[in-house]
Amino acid sequence: MCSEFVQAGLVDKVVIQRLVMTKRKQVAPERRYGRELLRAHELLYTSPKDGSLCSLNTNSPCEMCVDCFLYGFAAGGGGAQKSRIWTEDAFSILPATDILGDRTINAIYENGTMRLKREEDTKASTSLNTSEYIKPGVHFLDVVTLKDVTADELRYVIGNILLTTRYGAVSSRVGRMENQILGIFGSITELPSSLELVQATYDALEQPLEHPLNIDLLIAATKKVISTWTNKRGVSMQLSEEDLTNLITDVDRHWDAERDTFLKRLSQSYEPFRQPVAESKKSKAKNKKTVEAES
Ligand SMILES: [Zn+2]
């Protein structure tokens, strides 16, 4: 459970502690969602380094799949691809003290008690403790920047965001979240930060604020704040409500009825960048093998 002390609003300068949804916690499950489908449609490649199928956090990315091209990779055979999906920490609107609860966890042993009966092991289950949890219905605001993406890449990333429902370490039990896209902008620079968005929205909401927030009021306040962003330097346009709805309908269609065609077309679009790398890697690998065989 991460939190930071920050100013409540841009106008309201009281310092409060906000819950933070770290960028790592956001991007990893979203990538995993897309990769699950890439795998299902056989669009993951084998790593040139050790021949295993491309997977996250293994130091041997394939450097050829949609995920590697879009979200980047660090390790591998010398090369690196920077991510074109820039995320930030997302902040809760309300202070941490309002949205955290305590829950006692009793982890009992198979004998149905808190203790194992063996004499040498009289320690009580260490799982008996209180743990903090985030109350249901908490809202986080966040800005994501997509850099130099094609139309299909835009569909891919938005699909990952809209279709990911579980975040955090023990995601089979907790961490359910629903993402909503409130605005899409075109710009030659980054939009205001997630923190600035949260602070401006906090100012725009009618005080006093209490958990749970009314989502309609929150969405209205957020949209009011972002509608001023086209006045900022470098931000040239915001999609209208109609265009935004159409775009999301388009993304849904591509991820549903047209998924196979869509994912294959997107994967195919990297072919010109893929070939030279694949060739040079292959020949390198071959040479290495030959040398090994000879020695
Ligand atoms: Zn890959």
Polypeptide structure, described:
Helix content is 38%, strand content 15%. The chain has 295 residues and is an alpha+beta fold. The strands form four sheets. A four-stranded antiparallel β-sheet has the order 1-2-4-7. Helix 4 crosses helix 7. Zinc ion is lined by residues 45, 54, 61-62, 64-65, 67-68.
Explain briefly what this protein structure is.
With 295 residues, the chain is α+β, with helices and mostly antiparallel strands.
Secondary structure class reads alpha+beta
* Average of the residue pLDDT scores: 87
- Large-scale geometry: globular
What is the end-to-end distance? 53 Å
Give unreliable regions as ranges: 290-295
Strand arrangement, major sheet: 1-2-4-7
Helix content range of the residues, please?
25-40%
SSE order: EEHHEEHEEEEHEHHEHHH
Supply the key terms.
single chain, 295 residues, alpha+beta, four-stranded antiparallel beta sheet, 9 helices, disordered C terminus, binds zinc ion
Write the layout of secondary structure elements.
Blueprint: E1 2-7, E2 15-21, H1 23-40, H2 66-71, E3 85-86, E4 90-95, H3 96-99, E5 100-105, E6 129-134, E7 140-141, E8 145-146, H4 151-163, E9 185-187, H5 194-204, H6 215-226, E10 235-238, H7 241-255, H8 259-268, H9 271-294
Antiparallel strand pairs: 1-2, 2-4, 3-8, 4-7, 5-6, 9-10
Helix pairs in contact: 1-4, 4-7, 5-6
Bound molecules: zinc ion.
